[in-house]
Amino acid sequence: MPTNLFRNYRFQPRLITSLAAATGIAVTLALANWQLNRAHEKQELAARLEALAEDPAVSLPAAEVRADDVLWRRVTVRGRFEPRHAVFLDNRVRHGVVGYHVVMPLAIGGGSRYVLVNRGWIAGTQDRSRLPEVRTPEGTIEITGLAVTPSKRFLELSTQVADGNVWQNLTLERYRQAVPIALQPVVIQQESALEDGLVREWDPPDLGISKHYGYAFQWLALAVTILVLYLVTHVRRGSQKKAD
């Protein structure tokens, strides 16, 4: 009978291993809870960013702004492009085709302060030594797009991060060092249409929500593993008494 089977086993806890198991389970459960809270916080942030992006576009002035005042908002700005300071961000893949993102400063109101505009994607040429030709409108134009800040969390496989105006990645600090012009503290992902042959399809920001859920699952699984190992190693089979 199952009842008789379980009577043959005894739970024999030991103080040190019990304390170690309890500590391990408490720590892993706390870490799992922290990851879940981070996931929930980022879900709320994603909802706020989506709401900001749907608000009416605000005008970006020539005077320097605080990044937090316009970040993740749609902005509109008038000015002229400066093609000689353009940067081509390398190895940007679209539908299996390798190309570039074209980043170009726009002189706000034709003045001395600029804002960087990611104008969009263009396919590369078969000759890597030759950059694709980018059509740039002349004179004053109006641009609308999302104000973002370039991420610093990227992997660069080489110390050669820039070759002329072909760069692996973009940060505002790196651009300021290469091109000493007055810049607004954001980059505009252009949304407004221009007859320039560039493709403007922007992915939503990756806040790593699924990563936090994955980490939470791993910590919960580890807590269960510790509990199972503790029970397995502290249950002993007792000796059976023979009937007279």
Short key terms for the protein model shown above:
34% helix, 244 residues, alpha+beta, two-stranded antiparallel sheet, single chain, five-stranded mixed barrel
Describe what you observe in this structure.
By secondary structure, the protein is of the alpha+beta class. The protein has a domain at 56-190. It has helices at residues 2-7, 15-54, 67-70, 172-178, 209-234; strands spanning 9-11, 58-59, 74-81, 87-94, 97-108, 113-123, 141-148, 162-163, 166-167, 182-190, 235-237. A hairpin with a 4-residue loop joins strand 5 (97-108) and strand 6. Helix 2 (15-54) packs antiparallel against helix 5 (209-234). The longest helix is centred in the first third of the chain and has 40 residues, at 15-54. The chain is elongated, with a radius of gyration of 29 Å.
Brief summary of the model shown:
The protein is an alpha+beta fold and 244 residues long. Helices cover 34% and strands 28% of the residues. The strands form 2 sheets. Strands 3-5-6-10-7 form a 5-stranded mixed β-barrel. The chain has a two-stranded antiparallel ribbon with strand order 1-11.
Q: Number of DSSP strands?
A: 11
Spatial shape: elongated
How far apart, in Å, are the first and last alpha carbons?
A: 20 Å
Task: Give the biggest sheet.
Answer: 5 strands, mixed, barrel
Oligomer description: single chain
Largest sheet strand order:
3-5-6-10-7
Q: Assign a percent range to the helix content.
A: 25-40%
Instruction: Specify Rg, calculated over alpha carbons.
Output: 29 Å
Q: What would the average pLDDT be, to the nearest integer?
A: 85
**Fraction of residues in β-strands:** 25-35%
Low-confidence regions:
155-159
Q: Look at the helices and sheets and give the structural class.
A: alpha+beta
H/I helix tally = 5
